[in-house]
Amino acid sequence: MYEKVLLAADGSEHSIRAAKHAASLVKGQADGHVDIVYVIDVEQSKSDVLKYGDTTLMQSKRKEALKPIVEMLKEAALSYEIHFKHGDPGPTIVKFANERNYDCVVLGSRGLNPLQTMVLGSVSHKVMKRVKSPVMVVK
């Protein structure tokens, strides 16, 4: 169905559900590939530095958050690559997606950011409005 899919993920339950859909979109495609983009919000990055004080430990925690998604993709024998980006999640995902030619962008309707859990219109809305390729929002 799709060969090149971008999955925006942060380790939240919604992003894990979105990963299942992303995997199903590329499964069975000879050249199927999933790029996972994890955007590190500037404010979150600051609080992580204060909490952990070590960038290596912070990076390890972020990779750990994506572990269920990585395991799912490995189990399905799918090609994937993880990209860590810094910035405001909505615009950063949009920029990343639009710089590459994805068949589809998949993301959860909510993420880990407590403020964004109150309203769908934050990251997922920005991505739906501004990404050039089709977007699937999973709730």
What is the gist of this entry?
InterPro entries: Rossmann-like_a/b/a_fold, Universal_stress_UspA, UspA. By secondary structure, the protein is of the alpha/beta class.
Keywords:
139 residues; alpha/beta; Rossmann fold; 5-stranded parallel sheet; 6 helices; 5 strands; Universal stress protein; Rossmann-like_a/b/a_fold; UspA; Universal_stress_UspA
Describe the protein's architecture and organization.
Helix 5 (89-99) packs parallel to helix 6. The model is unreliable at 115-121 (pLDDT under 50). The protein has one domain: Rossmann fold (3-Layer(aba) Sandwich). It has 139 residues and is an alpha/beta fold. It starts with a strand and ends with a strand. The radius of gyration is 14 Å and the shape is globular. The protein has six helices and five strands; from the N terminus they run E-H-E-H-H-H-E-H-E-H-E. 46% of the residues lie in helices and 22% in strands. The longest helix has 14 residues, at 13-26. The chain has a five-stranded parallel beta sheet with strand order 3-2-1-4-5, sandwiched between helices.
